[in-house]
User: Fold this.
Amino acid sequence: MRGAALRPLARILLARQKGETPDGIERESARLRIEEMRDKARFRAEGRLVVLALLFLCVFLAVGGRMTLMAATDPEEPRSAISATGIVAQRADIVDRRGRILATNLDTYSLYAQPPQMLDTARAARELVGIFPELDAERLVRDFSGSRKFLWIKKKISPEQRQQVHDIGEPGLLFGPREMRLYPNGRLAAHVLGGYGFGREGVYAAEVIGTAGVERTFDEFLRDPAEQGRPLQLSLDLTVQAAVERVLRGGMQMMNAKGATAILLDVHSGEIIALASLPDFDPNNRPVPLLEGDQSDSPLFNRAVQGVYELGSTFKIFTVAQAMELGLVNTETKIDTRAPLVWGRYKIKEWDNRNYGPELPVRDVIVKSSNVGSANLVLMIGEERQRGFFAELGLLEPSPVELSEAPGSRPLLPKNWSEIVSITTSYGHGMSASPLHLAAAYASLVNGGTMVTPTIVKRRTARRGARVVSPEVSAQVTQLLGEVVSEGTATMAEVSGYRVGGKTGTADKPRPGGGYYRDRVIATFASVFPSDDPEYVLIVSLDEPVETSGSKPRRTAGWTAAPVAAEIIRRAAPLLGLRPKVEIEHDDG
Amino acid sequence: MVYGSLPIRDSEPILPNWWRTTDKAVVSCVLLLLGVGLLLGLAASPPLAHRNGLEPFHYVQRQAVFAVLALAVMIPVSMASPKTVRRFGVMGFLITFAAIALLPFLGTDFGKGSVRWYSLGFFALQPSEFLKPCLIVVSAWLISAVQEVDGPPGRLFSFLITSLVVALLALQPDFGQACLVFFGWGVMYYVAGAPFTLLVIMAGSVVAIGVVAYNGSEHFARRIDGFLSTDVDPNTQLGYATDAIREGGFFGVGVGEGSVKWSLPDAHTDFIIAVAAEEYGLVLVIFVIVLYLVATVGTLMRLVRERDLFIRLAGTGLVCTFGIQAFINMAVAVRLLPAKGMTLPFVSYGGSSLIASGFALGMLLALTRLRPQGEIGDILSRGGN
Assistant:
């Protein structure tokens, strides 16, 4: 067909030669040309029509999609009563293990303004500032007189404030119902509960969402309408928690510490009965996070979970327990304790440069807390096996407890687990873990030797974890811990009527730039009670304590953390239903 | 005729022929849309009747009458041949053009600020609604004439006529109709093979006009600002519509339970889709969207097979104007486009709109009927070469 576009000269010349007129040929050629043009236009038009059809498909799909998106969201100012349930406002309560309320909801009001309906904006602004001093009168007047037709003034107001706003008599000031979270016990268990904030907001309802602690971890459960408001039952015991917090606060002041934490754990179920971290805060009025400086200075910092520190000599019991489990030693085996132990360019010394003589039996390595003895034990075990044992105790992974802060608080481990690392970790230096890690590991050792997973939620049935040490070793470990209290470094932890076992740990605090402070320590006391048949583990850790009753300041855990722990046990044990064995003492006397 | 012999018909009877060749999908869509319109009228118009002191379903009754009239216009028109459609289109254009030109002298504004209507006593006639389809037919005719040997410069003529009409509409002022008319012409020009650069220039000039209008007209600027600002002012039509759609959710708040119709002055016309979304939910809205989609895209695909240039252009213009009007109406309610009053064809209340839509779709149906497309001739003539 291409040839038709040109004038068919050959045919015309041929026709002329024959003496015919070439008009017919020319007409035929022109007709073909036009037809071809039309065909081309038609094909182009067909393509363009398809484009148009696709365009319409797209725009209608866009409208439908947008409509779907809008239909799936809730209205800001609902008009009909039927859809007022759009935001499911009712958040489930949180209760302790005996069903006592830890967190519940309170009906309150939010205050908003519709400036077009306002009569006297200047007066309204003045009166509002009289009720809420934190508001800025000039800004209010500007907002009221500008082009805005709707603005929030306060998200939560009390009934008294609401009445005062009513009394202004301004028709443009309106209220929307709000449900707010209430923690009736104030600061109690603040770090466990966490806090809340408002999510999506409408005039007639707002979503309450958890921002920290169990409120955040169990946010979905608490908001799930399918649970029909079934409360979240925690493993905490409110009275024990109150006693622990009270004693800890007193102990922290007495020992001049800047922070303190205590964890009380059931060794069989892994339930956390009490968890305190000081300084604390009121979750009803949660402070803002620090924007600069060390987050661990903020009251929001949960030392029990987030406070990843070197925990010192409390780790020695792991070394001894493993050596016994492997059958390398028994409690009476003599261990070389000549100080200092020279290892390459490192010198391992005892605390305060003491010297416990050429050798000690294993039980005295624990009772007297010998660094050199632990080091020699771990050299018998070997670093691979030590690392494996720590992993079994859960000391190398973030704690599995159901607090939103836990997954982010990984233990700090040295990069390669060399021999010198294994020597220092044998007495608790060189690696850092949280007090909660320590609590779970102690519970695993003393409960008969099975792994404990700590939990903040009440468990229906106790689950037995994987075996860590044999029941015999577990019993021996408990025995050793008891001896530490009865005749070792922690004699101040004795509680009349209760048999307590435990291990002290005093670790120098690391400087931010590297190296260690000479006069700042983390004093930790890990205790178990009753030590003849352990049921609970209590960890008490004080940040920079110093006890000044003596001639020179004392900082060791035996002088600081141990007496605080003893006082906590004295108060908490009866609340936990443990009977003091007064009669036996009486019989002995 | 010999006594006793059977009469012989040389063609198929009209009605069976109509039924066989008509685009039944479009007819069904129109009937369903009219039904939805009546259904929504039951919901949306009682507040208006209440305000005007009439019995609750006054406007529904009128809507029903108009719907019947629209069908009565649409079906006979759809039986016409393309040539008849063209002739009546041209005549209709002359009449409606004269009517629009005379509006400033004889028309009324019903207190709404722009003179668009003739008051006929029992209802208000808006001639621009009828002018639209007629102008499309005329333009299509002119543009298709270019293809004839020694044909007139139809594109230029049609552009001049369209511009004149746009100017007249803008003077009323009725920017919505003006844009629609211009859009219809642009689509036809595009299908007729407009060069690409020209299309880009046209799009650019539309933007430029928009900017000028934004700076020049306070009314226009306010609408654009309202559209661009992120938070919807809850006390505007848009705010009410947005709330209504959100409140309706997927299955609606229930028949008669909706409340947006009491706040929206244009609930029965421009924002009828918001009423639908509130009372019947997303389900009905999606159904309506699908109806428009089927009618528009189905017709366009039918036109792809059409060989006659006039029919194709006129059909494209008619169906695109119909589709874009539906799109703009719904897009405004969901804030995809700035606020612009535009009726939802066949669903919104309004006599002129309904009957004119029936007239336009009648012409469209007449143009899209199945007829021989000359494919056989094509094969034969090509085979000869």
Summary: Chain B has a mean pLDDT of 85.
